[in-house]
Amino acid sequence: MKSGPRGVTEVTQQGADMEPQQFSRPTWSRQIEFTLAGIGCAVGLGNVWRFPYLCYRSGGGAFLVPYLLMLVVLGIPLLYMELTVGQYTRRGPVHALAIVCPLLKGVGLASVAISFIMCTYYNVVITWALYYLFSSFQVPLPWQNCNNTWNTPNCTNHATNSSYSSTASQEFFRYKMLEQTSGVEETGEMRWELFLILILAWILIYLCIFKGVKSTGKVVYFTALFPYLILVALLINNAQLPGAIDGIIFFIVPEWEKLLSVEVWVNAAAQIFNSIGIGFGSLMAMSSYNSFNNNVLKDTLTIAIINSLTSILAGFVIFSAFGYMSHLQGIAIKDLAVDGPGLVFIVYPQAFANMPVSQLWAVMFFFMLLCLGLDSEFAMVEVMVTSLMDEFYQSLIHIFKRKELFVLAVCSAACLLGIPLVMQVGIYVFQLMDHYTAIVSIMFLAFFEILAICWFYGVNRLSSNLKEMTGQGANIFFMGCWLIVAPVLITVLLIFSVIQFKPARYEDIVFPPWAQGVGWFIAMASIIWIPLGAIHTLWVLPGSLMQKLKLSITPYALNEKQKMPYYERGGIIANPGLSIISSNISVPEKPPAETNF
Q1: Which of 14-23, 230-239, 372-381, 535-544 is predicted least confidently?
Q2: Which is it for strands 584-586 and 572-574: parallel, antiparallel or unpaired?
Q3: What whole-number distance in Å separates Cα of residue 277 and Cα of residue 557?
Q4: Residue 97 maps to which CATH number?
């Protein structure tokens, strides 16, 4: 065998029959590419859609209190933890979690599953953004008035609180783009326009990632930075509109009584997890391509802080538009019809229709959504690609011949799974998947990930890993958050999210019991891997039950005789409990001294 880049073990052809082949893991061409990719992964559609929506629903500025608190005690420490594990083990989440805690190796599989589930419906939002982008070149904008074939007699050019009327932008979203049915019980037909655009969206994703970090690293220079130019331009424009100041005041002035609601705190934690990507494995997979001596803390703070500042910037942009609409329509801001994705596909387009040079602002806004969506989407797809390549490299290369063809197969499979979302029933499927994946599943994943890394692997080992990579271990704040604050907070939030769980709904329609059952099935499609992984580990390990339990929480990253980091041993780890699929895994030898980028 010979050592490849960064000490990754390559197996020569002569030894291929004796040992499992392992691909030579590439690295980012420049470290700034990882930082930008991390920012692009964290900063996504949720910053301009979910965050302002949760602020709107949770008392404006009052939501910022739990949000910023969760950022400090959960978001930053847990991101630091994930980047450390990914960079140290140089593996995707499946193998990284198997190495640090074999008993909970299923957490890694669960993170891959939830990322794959999310990428199937997240790309539909990119599809909608592309549809609106193409429609924005029309004069006048197709949602500007009610004089269109898809409009109903109840259409009005002005917002109203009446349940019997709807705005032109609402009807464009519902009856033109989606052609939505009256409920989840009616499947309807395929929306062929959306299906073709969905294929286009997946082609864009494929072109971004088919060469791995080499192609991704080049794309992020544009996709991660361009949205900020648009956000600043939109804010400058909106701030000059009448009523904008009222919307900004609504955004920053808290309704303190909202802080008494546990739901607000749960939503704040869920937004931190969803926005930064805690528990999804995306950033852990990306950090596995880092230089071994990369400054993890610097990347952590950069990604987390820029992500939150972007959310707040987007909040000013969105709420200034709310104030303008409130001024035009003569209704209170709290009475605007805002629900889920309707925030960016109904409310904001309606504001564009009344702005000067409306087509220009519409094109800029939806192109910005496209850039934001692409970054997060190809990060979620990369989790699946990285994990499967780590596990089955030899078999996959034998079948597909080239990694590019395997990536194409993954994108094609995800595209096919997204077909129900571009049917007329698609909006209900989207809301169901988002509710049970983004809130229910992620809380369970975060809990067990913290349990595996912070308690079973241990904060002392994690700090030692940091010191070995960067020369400096974790300080007392991060040690305290990992050991006590994060586990306790996650446990409390998990309990209250279960107790106060609300069934999925879309607008005023609460989904029937059978649809809720489908939602729980979607949630379990990721969570189920955690108990399955634990059962498999205990089944294959030797000895009595107590011996099995002891071995199952002993990191394979340690040499039991010398108590040294796993890569000091080099070669092959042959532990039957390491992988659910295979019993052998190639691990990197100790890397040569590397220079920070």
Answers
A1: 14-23
A2: antiparallel
A3: 25
A4: 1.20.1740.10
